[in-house]
Every structure is written in structure tokens, then in C-alpha cells.
Amino acid sequence: MTRFPALLLALLVTAAPAARAQGTGPLIKYGKWVLAAGAVGMNYLANRAHDRADEQFGVLRSRCFADRALCALDGSGRYADSGSEELYQASLRYDGRARRWLFAGETALVGAAALFVYELTRHAPKPDNIPFEPEVRSLHQATGVGVRIGF
């Protein structure tokens, strides 16, 4: 289990010089993708928890349609039947998990978006190894387009 974090750390450390040459640190360069993948994973887990909550509630609903006495409520608002109450509480637990996963996924998505925007708006010098760079100039009543090829 500790091999994966160690491998990830080694990958980030070896990629740091290449990232610095491009003007972005490895935390931003790779962190945005980790956060985006985390957002997808957390939303998947939220969907699974929501499906489980729906399954539990579906069982409760079919149970209530089969026998109305199983879904009678007592004075405190709970189901009088312990099996029905357990199904309802399980549905609430899975809904709570889905809510937490969804909130965490949305937070990770906002973090990834912030890192993408930060990287795009950050001024970085152009690298010297661009072999083909189009050139567009604004002239008096025209637009000039040219090509600059470096050797």
C-alpha cells in the first residue's frame, strides 16, 4: 500500500526539473489532474451510495405496499416495525454518504478548476524550442499573417 505513494512522490520529484523549465511547478502541473480524477471518483462513489439508498427505500416501499401494517408509525414518528425502521435508517445513512461524497467531489472539482485557471493565467516565458510559430500583425486596414521558422 505504501508503494503507490512512494512511486507517485518519485515521479513528481523527477518531473520537477522539466516542469520548472516550463514555468509551472509539479504541484500545480499534476495536482490539477489528481484533483480532477478525484472529483470523478468521488462523484462515482456518491452515485453508488445514492443507488444503494434507492434500493433500500425501494425495498421499504414494496414492503409497505405488500402489507400496510408493516409501515405503521408510532407516536414518535418512527416505524413501529423494527425491520421497516432499519430499512429506512439504512436509506438515510446511504443518502448521507452520497451527500458527503458529492460535496467532496464538488470541492475537488472547484480546486482543479482553480488550478487550471491559475496555470492558464500565469505568465510564463515562451520556450525557445518552438520550430513553427505563426505571426499575426494588425496593420492599418488589414491583418498581416506570416510564418517564422527557426533553424
Describe the 3D structure:
The protein is mainly α and 151 residues long. The chain has one domain (25-149). Helix content is 66%, strand content 9%. It is built from three helices and two strands. The protein has helices at 3-21, 26-66, 82-121; strands spanning 132-138, 143-149. A two-stranded antiparallel sheet has the order 1-2. Strand 1 and strand 2 (143-149) form a beta hairpin. The longest helix has 41 residues, at 26-66. The model has no long low-confidence stretch (mean pLDDT 84).
Question: Which descriptors apply to this entry?
Answer:
mainly alpha; 3 helices
Short overview:
The protein is mostly helical.
The biggest sheet, with number of strands, parallel, antiparallel or mixed sense and barrel status, is: 2 strands, antiparallel
Indicate how many domains the architecture comprises: 1
Average of the residue pLDDT scores: 84
Specify the helix fraction band: 55-70%
Topology:
Layout: H1 3-21, H2 26-66, H3 82-121, E1 132-138, E2 143-149
Antiparallel strand pairs: 1-2
Helix pairs in contact: 1-2, 2-3
